[in-house]
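Why predict the complex rather than its parts? Because the way molecules touch one another can change local conformation, and only a joint prediction can capture that. The input here totals 896 residues.
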Amino acid sequence: MDRAAVLETIRGRVVPSEAEREALATAVEELTARAEAAIETLPVEADTVLVGSTARGTWLAGDRDIDLFVRFPPSLPRENLERYGLDVGYAVLPDGHEEYAEHPYVKGSIDGFDVDCVPCYAVEDATQIRSAVDRTPFHSAYLEGAIEPLADDVRIAKAFLRGIGAYGSNLRTEGFSGFLTELLVLEYGGFLELLEAAADWSTPVEIDPEDHGRRTFDDPLVVVDPTDPERNVAAVCSATNVARLQHYARAFLSSPSTESFETTDPEPLSRADVRSQIDGRGTTPLAVRFSTPDLVEDQLYPQLAKSLDSIVDSLVRGGFEPIRADRFAEPDGSAALFVECAVAELPAIERHTGPPVDVRVHAEGFYDAYESTDVVGPFIDGDRYVVERSREHRTPEEWLEASLFDVSLGPHVETALRTDHDLLVGPAVTELADAFGAELARYFDPRP
Amino acid sequence: MDRAAVLETIRGRVVPSEAEREALATAVEELTARAEAAIETLPVEADTVLVGSTARGTWLAGDRDIDLFVRFPPSLPRENLERYGLDVGYAVLPDGHEEYAEHPYVKGSIDGFDVDCVPCYAVEDATQIRSAVDRTPFHSAYLEGAIEPLADDVRIAKAFLRGIGAYGSNLRTEGFSGFLTELLVLEYGGFLELLEAAADWSTPVEIDPEDHGRRTFDDPLVVVDPTDPERNVAAVCSATNVARLQHYARAFLSSPSTESFETTDPEPLSRADVRSQIDGRGTTPLAVRFSTPDLVEDQLYPQLAKSLDSIVDSLVRGGFEPIRADRFAEPDGSAALFVECAVAELPAIERHTGPPVDVRVHAEGFYDAYESTDVVGPFIDGDRYVVERSREHRTPEEWLEASLFDVSLGPHVETALRTDHDLLVGPAVTELADAFGAELARYFDPRP
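Output of the joint prediction:
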């Protein structure tokens, strides 16, 4: 297929039908009416605003998310905002339930659409916000009027990013948010234009649509928020996801295919498959397995990442040379921090380098400390004392057992590990296939 | 024993008896007479000069070395100097034989003394020398008159350095030369004064007896040659030997003992002893064994050191983490380059990090090169492509077999290895005990 044919196919998949548009319009109308009626009963002024992709006409066909914000005056105390927000929320979504982001809000459904009814402050401008949700209406207002001619390109871009696994600014994916995608399509003037640009990016890339940025950012991709010069809209986007977009942009431009738009779930590996993988690789795999902490993904995944990094760093310090690592979690199930080491066993001794002999006080202290102990040495190598002392932990397993709670774990991960955990080593890691066969399939056959 | 008693004991051992002094004087007289008679017959002016410790009265009791230099005019062509030098040499030492340093010279014996009869140029001053031997008479002349009152302290200092294994400026020991020892004793005013100073040295130490140094040196100990401001007399002295003097100086000052003056040869290890050492250490030892190249020590040991360093560096690059290494050589026998590795085996795969994805030309080249090959990946980690490709050499043995002739070996070592060599691994290294039991004893129980 040529480029135009591929894009036409994708357009057919991602642009909502007239029926879908109408159903959405009807639902929005009903929600707004309910919200306005509820506001009437409050002892305070407020209004509603539809935000997000459904507001801007850039949602992907089949997406069923409606975000309705209720704006209160900035003078309203926070407790009142929260109480009135929930009042309106339950009036709009009588069967809804409370969730919590920066404020509590009500989540529910109407006519098959998932609805978030979120209270926020109607601040003067986006630099005055009290919490992150206050910014959202400014983003919608900024794009309104500008993004409509590019709405289909935005949809195609979102579908592309979703297909390559880089869509979503949640802290599990660390990818491109919807707003970021819209800004990029707007900046370059279309989907293909974005791919052409991304294929050639030299990071760090800096984009400042309003040309008002006044600080520097330490991120590979910087898109200065057009409503707040101090903020990088792409702050969450990881270097890996920036590179991923570059890779798949080049791949698509040189060989267009609908494949890039399709998320493929790999065939889960069985225990035997995992066994054959680790035997073939000849590595020493380890996994710390525990009950997944009861947290939303945006809290869980950063804690898993921090815990995994700390364990990997610890194994590096221990000399076990981790090759690669990953974290897996089932909600309400088990989670695993998985590391493959290159070194299975170290000697019974380890070299310990002391101070330079010419730094007399330290040198004498070191020599005296080791002279009568059961070490090899102290001897002199170059200008320093050296001993070879016995190594306490010769395998990654012994090392990790001894150091697990000395490393910097996420707090809820630490609690979960202290409650209970298994340390799986070598062939025992095949047990992970029961819960994480698909994740392990992706681990052993990773794509860009 | 207190300090004074120890020094008195040592003095008794190192100061030559009256009989020894007389025997030496008689021998020197006879040698000089023979040399002068031989010079008479030459068509050129020349004179003789006694150099070295016997000339300066600082030799250790029992040392039997006499160095007689024959000085020729600088205008004499080198071929003639060599021919006349040998003529005089054979006249002085009719049973002698030719050896070669920078010039050929004659070595022989008289009345139980070992004599070197060495031709040199009588240059104006030491900065004008044509070869290193021309400098020696200037060193003797510089010390003459100054060193006599300290002769016994020099002897004690030499005996101390010999006892701790740091005496000798040959390229096997890389220690303190006799001349350097004399300059240090002279600088500090005695043996104990040298120890007090050395115990407190902060390296680099710079001593410039004539206060005429005009360049900087990159050595831990710098003693500017009093006859040549461009030369560091201690250039050969290794950092290890400087630190060793510091260590034993402190040990002697805090607890004086004749032990420091006594070289102790350790009990050689048997094959079983070596086996028990490596089993206890849990390391992976390797040795490259070959016929010792037929070279003088000053050529052999630098080549062994260079070869060993290159092999160790190669094993570091291979990921096998050498812990310690040593080189052993029997003249006219076998030599061995011995390395103990921490890592016995690495995985079947190795991580290979490619270019940053945003460096388009390189990134595309890398991706295209690996895309259809049998590797894991390319995947993206951070801003770069990564593949896990199969590792060619999983053990230090396989690695070394493949890389031995790619590393920078000493030329004669390379020739010897190409002629024939064994690669001993693990328990097989116990065979080294047959030739190097004492060296291995020192290796496994090193002293400062």
